[in-house]
Every structure is written in C-alpha cells, then in structure tokens.
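Archive maintenance. Older records in this collection stored only the sequence; we are now back-filling the structure field for every entry so that each record is complete. The fields below show one back-filled record exactly as it appears after the update. Entries are processed alphabetically, and Patatin is next in the queue.

ARCHIVE ENTRY
Title: Patatin
Organism field: Phoenix dactylifera
Length field: 425
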Amino acid sequence: MESPAAWMDPSLEIDKLSYEIFSILENKFLFGYDDPKLFRPARSPLGTPLKASAAAGRVRILSIDGGASDGLLAGVALARLEASLRKLSGDPAARIADFFDLAAGSGAGGVLASMLFTRGPDGHPLFSADDALRFLAKNRSRLAATGEKGLLHKIFRRSGGGDGTFFRRIFGDATLRDTVKPVLIPCYDLASGAPFVFSRVDAVETDGYDFLMREVCAATCAATAAAEMRSVDGRTRIRAVGGGLAMRNPTAAAVTHVLNNKHEFPFATGVEDLLVVSLGAGETDIAGRSPAPPSAAELVRIACMGQADMVDQAVAMAFGKSRTTNYVRIQGHGVSLGRADDGVEAAEQTMAERNVESVLFRGRKLTERTNGEKLGWVTEQLIKEHERRRSGSVPTVLIKPVITPRTSCSTTTTTVSSLTSSGSP
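Back-filled structure field:
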C-alpha cells in the first residue's frame, strides 16, 4: 500500500527556487519566522529541552470554511470521521472534540464548530457529528447565503434579530467560556471596520470578550443584515456581518493562534508540531458561465472563494515538507452543493471525488487520492496522537480553566433530538 507521504506530495510541481522564495515569505509574514529553518528554538518556552518538547506530540487543529455554504460538506466529512474514530478507538461515545485541541469555523462552519465544541448540561459537547449533520440538513436554507439578491446592500441593514432567536434554541445562554476546547469564530465588525475573531481564550481572560454563543453564530452567519450584540458585561459592542465574507477559510488564523499562544500550547513552536485538518465549503458553479457580467452576489462569492484558495496556498507553502504529514485539505469538486436537491447526498459524493487544490502559478489540479481516502489517513493520525497522549507524560496542551464557569447553558430545555427531528425549530 502506498504511504501517505507518497500520495500527499507537497512539491506541487513548481521549481525549486520559487518554492524556496515563497517558503521564506510565508514563514516570515504568516508565522513571523525570520528564517524558515529556525522552526524550533533551542528550548521550549517553558525551558523544557527539545526532547521533551518533541515528546509532547502534535496540536490538533480543525478548521471549517464558511462563505456561501450550508456546511453540509464539512458535516458529512465530520460525521464520517467521528464514526471512524469511534470504531478505531473502541469508544462508542467518542466525539470530535475528544480528538482536536482547537476548532476554527466561519459562517455555517462556525455554527458547526460551535455545536460540536459547546459544553452541554451533561458536560459533554451538545451535538455529536451525526446529530449536527442532521440539523444542518434540516436547516440548510437558513444557514446558507447562496442565492441572496442584493447581498452587498443587505449586509449593511440593521439586524432584525431573527437569527438570535433561531440559535437560542440550540445554545440557550451558553457563552464562549462554555466550550470544551478553544474555538475561533470570525466575523467582520462594521463598527470598527476590521475583522473580529470570537475566541475562548479572550473570553476566559475577561468578560469584555465573552459573548453568548447564539450571538456569535448569528454574527458569523450574518449575510442579509448586520448582527448587533454586546459582550456579557456590556463593555464590548459588535456590529457584525458574516465571517464568510471576512475570513472564509480560518486555517491561517487558527495556526497563527496556536503558534503564538504559549500559555495553552507551550510546545507548539513550529508547523511540524501541528496536525491541521481543513474542511472546505465545496465548489460553487461560477466557472464556465455565460460571458454576461457577474452579479454583486456572484462577485462576493468569487472573492470569498479566491480568499479561501489563497489561504490554502499560503498555509501549504508555510508547511513545506511537513505538509505530507501535518496538513490535510478536504474540498469538494464537480458537485454543486448549493443547487443539489439532496445536499447530504451531494456532499457524500464529494467524499469519492479526487480533491482539487490550487497550485502556485499553475492554476488548479486534482490530487492523487479522494477526499474519503484522505479522511481515512486523518483518522489514523488522530488515533495515534490520542493513544500517544494516554501513555505520554508530557502534556501537549494546557487549556486555561474557567475560574467561575458559567452553567447557564443548562437552562435551555430544548433537546438535540427535538432540534434534529421533523419540523422547524
């Protein structure tokens, strides 16, 4: 059987000089390295010798794209992944959050990450991946921005608060502090004119950056109107439009966060200390259309798709040779998820497709293996890391606990089964 390194070749068929030049640029400007060869300092930030740092294993990052998407591609991929993890680990109750150290999600991807990582009344994540997929399939029209007319005009209107009511049924009064692992969920703040990333790390530090999860999800999904909200202490005010517009692919933000968060990830000193799983939102059928000028909504989608691809290229280049073992991108190709009558069936088809990736200076090409085969490799890597941590003595992550944890999320009486059953929530 061919080794993973053989079918995840990072060379991308570009010349050696161009590769080295762009590796230097990406490492310097994306990750802050002055020399791409200096991935690891002489000692870890805690003063631990490199041998102990290497024994700490790899930080596991999950990133989920947003944009004009309903999240079904990521939902199907994660449902498959969770089922495989349960089988190989021997734990029928295992959840996605058990095998990742941080989740980043934008748009519908942010909602999916929130459902899988927000703590429920029983202390476990609110949703299994399978339950989350059923919920997304049931409510795909409410989470997707596809087909909106006059999108550029509508996003600047004041919010009517409908999404807040919708997400209240899911998250109750849970806040960013109530996630079982760190999460990063972006939006664009019209008040400050800059991207804003909701983060558990910031929420634990101060109430001024702790927000209700239902409002976080409304903010990252806001496409037809701006979502206005305040932090739990009322000090921070946000007027947000969707994360898919500001940061469709949050992978670079997640990687940078881990490499710079030495308190929670003390041994993550370079890309070789990471295992990144990036889930795309699927392809939209823009290519090959009539020569007529694109609409405003199409221009927004093109910009979002281009941004997501550029982030994928930048991250892949920054990983360099480590891409064969430390970075995996799952993306749809050929099946238009937005137009399919059965979105889940269309997303399932993408698992049998060969993945499409953008190649620096060379357009796009198909990878050698299918998305499903890549997921199989990811499962094996996650299980190996999970087992290594059980027997290892050096902690890989040191997640900062909440001194006064909020338990208000248990006040909601809505159950997962009622949300995923027939009928609108």
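Update note: The chain has a mean pLDDT of 77. Residues 296-319 form the longest helix (24 residues).
Entry marked complete.
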